[in-house]
Amino acid sequence: MNGLMLTAVGALILIILVLVYRIHTLVVVMRGAKSGDIGMANKVNAFIFPVFFFVGLALFYWSYQSAKPYFLPEAASEHGKITDGIFWEVMLILLIAFLVTNVLLYVFPFLYQYKEGKKAYFYPDNHKLEMVWTVIPALVMAFFVVFGLIEWNKIFTFPEESKCEVIEIMGKQFAWQVRYPGQDNTLGKYKFKEIDATNEFGIDLTDKASFDDFIPRELHIPKGKPVLLRIRARDVLHSVFLPHFRVKMDAVPGMPTKFWFVPTKTTAEMRAETGNPKFNYELACTEICGRGHFAMRFLVVVDDSADYEVWKKKQNPWVNENADYVRTKVPGFVAPGEEVKTTTPVAPVIVDTVNVVEELTKKGEVSLHINFASGSSDLTDASMPSVKSIFEFLTSDKKAKIEISGHTDNSGDAKKNKDLSKQRAQAIVDALVKLGIAKKRLEAKGFGAEKPVADNATEEGKAQNRRVEIKKI
Ligand SMILES: [Cu+2]
Fold first, then answer.
1. Based on the domain organization, do 184 and 319 belong to the same domain?
2. Which residues surround ligand 1, an ion (CB under 5 A)?
3. How far is the CA of 178 from the centre of ligand 1 (A)?
4. CA of 215 to the centre of ligand 1 (A)
5. Residue 346 scores a pLDDT above 60
6. Segment 405-452, tens digit of pLDDT
């Protein structure tokens, strides 16, 4: 049986006893007892008063003791210890006032019950006494108000943001989300219009400060450092409740709030203190915010400062985790380490059908479309037949010297194109040397886009221009 049931049963028994007693008294009166005849009734009544008081007091003590294991452990924040201290000081004063007034209230009827021949002392008022019991409570009250305000002001004097770990907490139906400012220690701006299924915070991607912000699935905070929570709600009222830190602050849609505190015990320390290896701090919602309100539980971890820094370094910025989404807002965005899929159309490839040996022998020059890896001077396998045909010519005409010139289309940087075309020509020279042609018979030149043979306005024209010319010299 729990405490509440026991108390209820006790109260019921008392009510029944009183009822039975009252009925008995009435019956006595009905039978014609005299009005001056007090009898046992008064004695029993007088006795019940102190009994009620002491039984009630015992139940009160018992309920306190049995509820004690469920009390929150000692506050895990600096200000929490202060507010807890004030709470228990007020409790102590209230307990003393309660005991004094109730002892008088319940014991007096017993002490001053009716006695034959004793007349009640007429004592209508006493101004001194009135003063005492008005002024003392007023002074005690004033002391707590002033003392409380001083502490309240300390709690609500925010330290400089640069000295705090600034973390944003956003409540929505039905979850909490937290955002950290990342390396730059600045939370990126947000706009409610940017909120969608992916961008739940409504992060403003035009603000570069948001590019290192990260959104983890747990709230990590460092021990011994001020933590500043920037609190907001996306839909209805929620309330940030961190019971172990004695933190509670509403999350109000359209009206950001904030709170700061200094955690004083790591999760590991709290596990040791409570003797519960599974202990975890938590963030809950204390606003009845809808059907899924109960689901608004968020794991909180207090690390020592070294662990906290390690954890922070491991977090991946939100933009990197959502690079595809970010690209829809910031064209060309590339997350670090991300391989960008190029969307440029595959350039047309021209397959040469000319007979290189014949052309060079007859005309002394030939234009070839040799394939290189994109943007590099590496010969592809597809280009080897062309290289071999040049080699054939050079072996058929052992005295011939040739000039190999590289040409590109006009896309990209002119200087780079020229260098690349030279490197490509050189690559063919190197390939021929490897096949056994003397170096002195070969010359490499690069012209970039200087000598187009077709219109660079079309992809086909560009393909024509990307070529290698071989000339007998
Ligand atoms: Cu809520």
1. yes
2. 238, 285, 289, 296
3. 14
4. 19
5. no
6. 988 888 878 888 888 888 888 988 888 888 888 888 999 999 888 888
